[in-house]
Amino acid sequence: METSTDSYLSIANESRGVYREKASKFLAIAIPVSTEEEIKLKLDEFRKTFHDANHHCYAYRLGLQNPLYRMNDDGEPAGSAGKPIYGQILSTGLSDILVVVIRYFGGTKLGIPGLIHAYKTSAREALDSAEIIEKIIRVQFRISFEYLVMNEIMKILKEAGVKIIKQMTEERCHIDFYIRESHAKGLKNRINRLRNVDMEIADFSN
Questions:
Q1: Which of 1-5, 73-77, 109-113 has the lowest mean pLDDT?
Q2: How far is CA 115 from the centre of its chain?
Q3: Fewer CB under 10 Å: which end of the chain, C or N?
Q4: Do residues 55 and 123 share a domain?
């Protein structure tokens, strides 16, 4: 799946993969996430659910520009778990994703090369079974204008394909909306041709 400059790939829902080596079991779980707080809650949840496992190794990646990421080996030799998991996330080009690999030790040590292979393979199994989706980067704006130009403004917004979040109709009207990042410049150029109409970036997510 190809993406544009204002979109990236993620997964639609949870997916799993399993790898076994010398009686050790590696259960990989891939989950779509959007914030580090959400990731923390998911990790706590898995530690409770799989409390009898020996290791809960993971990696995550959030966002597109300057993405946030982290890898954790959870007691395995340094670089043998989190890094190969993260490598699979990168190789698939995914973001807004957490991959946790839960290991049940089978009694036989695998060595660092064996661990790297096991964590890499199990993570890949989970990602290969995931439904890949495209996520669009949208920008939030507020537009302010006189009521007399309401019809013209609504026509422009409709043609630009915006998603209206809030609309206040008063003497001075306001509309809060999202628009795809790559379409924002063209919309702003059209709005700037109108008199006494203001369009500015806004934050109305809370």
A1: 1-5
A2: 27
A3: C
A4: yes
| CATH code (residue 92) | 3.30.230.30
Domain count, the chain: 2
Report yes or no: 88 and 81 within 8 Å, Cβ to Cβ: no
What global pTM score does this model have?
Answer: 0.77
Domain span at residue 161? Answer: 137-201
* 117 & 143 share domain: no
99 and 14 inside one domain: yes
Question: Are 78 and 155 part of one and the same domain?
Answer: no
Residues 6+ apart with CB under 8 A from 40: none
Considering the domain boundaries, does residue 1 fall inside one? no
Confidence of residue 82 (pLDDT cuts 50, 70, 90): very high
Q: How far apart are CA 81 and CA 70, in angstroms?
A: 12
